[in-house]
Design a protein that fits this description.
Number of strands of chain A: 13
Distance between the termini of chain A: 53 Å
Number of helices of chain A: 20
Strand content of chain B: 15-25%
Radius of gyration of chain B: 29 Å
Strand content of chain A: 5-15%
Distance between the termini of chain B: 49 Å
Number of strands of chain B: 38
Number of helices of chain B: 30
Shape of chain A: globular
Largest interface: A-B, 65 and 68 residues
Oligomer: heterodimer
Radius of gyration of chain A: 22 Å
Structural class of chain A: alpha/beta
Strand order of the largest sheet of chain A: 6-5-4-7
Largest sheet of chain B: 7 strands, mixed
Amino acid sequence: MAAVPGVEARAGKFPGPSLIPRLTEIQREHGWLPREELVALSRDMRRPLYEIEGLISFYPHFRTDPPEGSEVAVCHDLSCWLAGQAQAPEGARVREVSCLGRCDRAPITVVDEDYPEVERGEGPRPNDPYSPGDERYRVLRRALDGDITRDEVITALKDAELRGMGGAGFPTGTKWELVAQQSATPKYAICNADESEPGTFKDRQILAEQPHLVLEGLLLGMWVTGAEEGWVFIRHEYAPEEEVLRAELDALRAAGLVGPGRELDIFTSPGGYILGEESALLECMEGHRGEPRNKPPFPGVYGLWGKPTLMNSVETLADVPVIVERGAEWWKAQGVNGSTGLKFFAVSGHVERPGVYCVPMGTTARELIERAGGVSGGAQLAAFQPGGASSNFLGPDDLDVALDFKPLAERGSMLGSGALVAVAEGTDLLAAATNVLRFFRNESCGKCVPCRVGSHKAHAMLTEALGDGSVEAIEPEIEQLEATLRMTSICGLGQVALGPVMSVLGLQRGGTAARSHPRPRP
Amino acid sequence: VATTVEAPSEHRTVSLTIDGVEVQAAEGATIWEAARDAGIEIPVLCHDERYDPVGVCRLCVVDVGGRVYAAACVRPVEDGMEVKTATDDLERHRATLTSLLETDQPPPEQDPKETTTADNELLVLVRKYGVERQNGLPVGGGRGEDHSNPVISVNHDACILCDRCVRACDDIQGNDVIGRSGKGYTTRIAFDLNDPMGESSCVTCGECVAACPTGALTNKPIRDVPIRPRSELRQVESVCPYCGVGCALTYHVDDERNAIVFAEGREQPGSKSRLCVKGRYGWDYAASPQRLTVPLIRREDSYPKGPLSGDVRGEGRGRRKPGGLVNYDEVLPHFREATWEEALDLAASRLKALHSEHGPGAIAGFGSAKCSNEEAYLFQKLIRAGFGTNNVDHCTRLCHASSVAALFEGVGSGAVSTTYGDIINADVAILAGTNTTANHPVASSFFKQARRRGTTLIVVDPRRERIADHADIFCQIKPGTDVAFYNGVLHEIIARDLVDHEFVARRATNYEALVEMVQQYPPERAAQICGVDADTIREVARLWGEAGAAVVYWGMGISQHTTGTDNARCLIALCTITGNVGKQGAGLHPLRGQNNVQGASDAGLIPMFYPDYQSVDSPGAWTRFEEAWGRELDHERGLTVTEIIGSALHGGVRGMYMMGENPFLSDPNINKVRKALAALDFLVVQDIFLTETAEFADVVLPATSYLEKEGTYTNTDRRVQIGRKVLDPPGEAREDWRVVCDIARRIGLPMDYESPREVFDEMVALTTNYAGLTYDNLGPMGKLYPNPDPEGSDGTVVLFGERFGTDDGKAHLVPAEWMPAKELPDEDFPFVLNTGRLLEHWHTGSMTRRSFALDAIQPEAQVWLNPDDAATMGVADGDFVRISSRRGSIELRAKLSHRDTPGTCFIPFHFREAAANVLTIDEIDPFGKIPEFKFCAVKVEPVAVPEPA
């Protein structure tokens, strides 16, 4: 019997600090990871070589071969795929990478990890309680001064009906309360800034424009739950945004809002979409391969280093200050069509003005696409994913659906990661959905059988069928695979990997009928 | 199981229903466990109860009413949970998962497991779910194979990434070699930095093979004996013939071929089904074509006696190809075949003549710790009762004689006070001078596991061996400074008043003298001598002194010094003054080397004791044995191994009988041993191969190997186990015990036994410790002695709960002053040479170098050198170097290793072509008479040598 049921044997296996920062250091020094350095690291740290191998072969950031000149990273995921093949400069070495979170500039290429900065919007967004020139962290100071209580914050979040904006939509107030109630110490709080799903880049915008809200939300979370150590886990491709955060963190330290007893730091992800899954993120921070844990237990009870851990996404935390400042009623009133609050959306694909939009929750897909300038070139919309790569495709008939958790679920899709990708007529929708599956296959951690093998086999079958037009023949197998992946995979990645394909095929999915599209024909 | 996570302390019971049946389960139990207890079987591939669950194969998913299914192997039970384990939908998903795995497998007719042991667990599911290979899923494969390990095949296509091998390697054996490499569909198991298995740090324990459910990790056939299903083979439940850990195993035997096909670990309270490379793969030495099959008599023209081969003459110089063994072509022509009658008559008559002519002192016998208790008993009886001398000894003299001397003096018994497995109950354990991963691999797996479960592990050793990688504190003392280090620790324990005064007052003597002595060793002074900083010494003292239970395990690093007895005295003091003897998780454990060194000593195969440590110079004891054996006995202690060699040089001992010993390679200062053996008037060597020592023999008697006879063997834990006959002996080879009887009868000592069982009963009747034990009640797992209830109990784990074995029942503290080693490095010989063993080899290599696996993995002699020293001398890894001491020199390859500190080097003593004992010094400990194998001064020089042909 496992000592803590559900916690796999690997947890806490090799005591000692995570080797990931040391590996990052070696790579910074040499440009790659020479074998003799790895052997010396293993010897010095008294850690097995295989542990190092497990890490460097898992995380795409690590290289085991010396770099040979310039390298161009090219993304092939949905928004870039829709935009057509990116042109790499002549003679450059090309490396395919997964979505870089720059879908607004699709097709994106990045030379030697020189990531472009975001274009900041004009003026504060509606979720920012601070006017230009205001002293920030007002809410946090009030909390620290005892002007508000922890319960008041929890109540405000509950009353505001704020839900997690990372995809799962768990009620934020309830989560904070749960972690606050845990007796085990120390506790941790983590901002999940590992947004990596194709089409999704709203957190990047928030990090660039509102680092003060993200960090204030995180510090409030720490204060409410009693966590003495906070982390922002950010993907390494968000280097410019990480710099913004670091500058903000320096300012916080200088202002005495961060320091002993209330530590805050940044953990740079060594790469991989799977790390956005909360338990995989924890595994990574502990220095393991980013393989999701079996759950329960959940991170609120058994999180980082086995301790209660509050984890929220960037957007969720950025919404907290204004809710506490202006109250739940104000927040709720921001929504439309029966929804509450505000919502950031990344809009990309076949639209005129791809970008990040902060709109009232409940805004319809049609309105959002219109705000983004409508479908490119005035073309007809063929389909759209309302909530990132893992959300099922919806068709033109669904354009008036209110973008919120419930209405989207009722339509057989989801709000997901807040990323709307529009697909214009003339696109092979099954090919588009197969591209999405390809992303999940590439990003599968490989821990469990259904996702590791199933995503690969399904992609191979679909690719072949797309080539010879035999899609109908493989539908029963795809249907069974989808069900098996959905019902038996450890984490959300495997559970949703075949969903978009199924939605395009118009097949029955989990009791809800996805929008039935005309069968795609090449 | 091995997690560092604390278990929930309270155990509540929860109620749930599984498939409609009301079930009670302990809180914290998994659904899979609850179902199993309720008689409901849930299919699994990745799960095995020996390991913590990982929940990766998903075959065990069950319906608990959630959005998705839960993996039963990891999901804890909850009150009121309603679990369905076998709905149509679940079975459909299981079939799909099976099908997904199956498509990438090699076809069954090529599957490495299905075509050998035929127990591929995935294929069982494939058949159960009726999965067709042509099921529409694209067939994968092409992930490659790895045949770099001599006895284990890796087939990545057959791998389902269940992580069982990973957990077996980590959690069971603590070797930490296998992990996952890559991500997603391209993930593979990998060794180290994705290196070929045979080039990785893998120690070939085979635990991964035992764990693998598919054909991914399988055994290769050894000596071309095809591996077949267990049902087609005969199973023999026996014990490993190698080290003192005494692992229980099962040999799977092909009767038609009279050959072992493969070996597997077997359940037993100590070894718990684990094995190391020697036990699992090193049994084929018995099938070597070089076995002796007929008695041999030295030809007349081969006199005067002397070494027969260039190697043994000392002309070898190590420049041969690896795998050197006695050259039969060179040696055999000096002998002629004889009948047993002729050979036995000759042996008996010559020994008897020497005895008559020169008196009992002219005869000596070396028995062996490789032979059974019965054989040890008969051998010493022959020497004592037949020849009237106590000149009988064996290789214990070279291993723990000093430990035993100190233990007898201190606690009145040479046996361990607790078992190796008891470390799990210790808060703190010191591993002192033991390269335990190499010399007691399976015991070391329990040490590593205990550390992962919270025992603080302190390793004290001049070499940074693999076990040091697992230590919480590693004290790399300078060679030969043990006494200073432990006196420093004792000083600090006393200074901090961490002494168990009540225990000392009630159960120890001479405490004041100890206090007085260690007062001279404040940590700063100890640090100056031993090289471990004072703060670390203080920390060790604090941890040890504050521990609720603390235990020390030690090896030859303690004993093989001229201060070996003093070293052990310090450890005894450490345990005694803190009350760490006689309770769970505490005590003294000298890790015994040979499979039966404990038993051979118990049986009286030592010059100062009759069986069960009854002193030959105690009138009560000699009366008892004179009565039992019907002969007048010698009342003086006999000579020890090293003394016998010395005596032979000077015409004292003239005739010798060697049963299974090879002193030419195992004793210090080979050049001296060569002269001594050549000087003997008559030498009988009884062995399974022509050894180096046999070159000096007048008569060579072919013995059966361990695998061809029955007998009992007592391991380091005091566990008495039956080794069973597995194979028929080759040619005319005869069991050692029968040969001893044959000789005894010829010198007029009646020895008529039908079987070892009878001998065992006779021996038991003369001992207290073995009282009550019989072949029948030893059973398949053996029994620990003492055992007041052998029918009902496994025996006594912890000794000295109430009193020690001394006459007054108290522990006798003996203070020790630090003394430097006998031969310190100087300008001419600036290096300290340490010698010892390798994981793959056993003593003089006569068995292991004839084992295919062990020889393939470690074929040649090497000297371990620190890379900095090597760089200074311009020596690269693999270069030949010459190592010289005042007694001789050898040449062998350098192996650069961070495990050895600058100024030291290490040579394993197994390799005749570069025998470490050419260099070692024959200075001995004054009490234990053990040679200082662990310290002599040498020089190291690079030599330009052409690659061997």
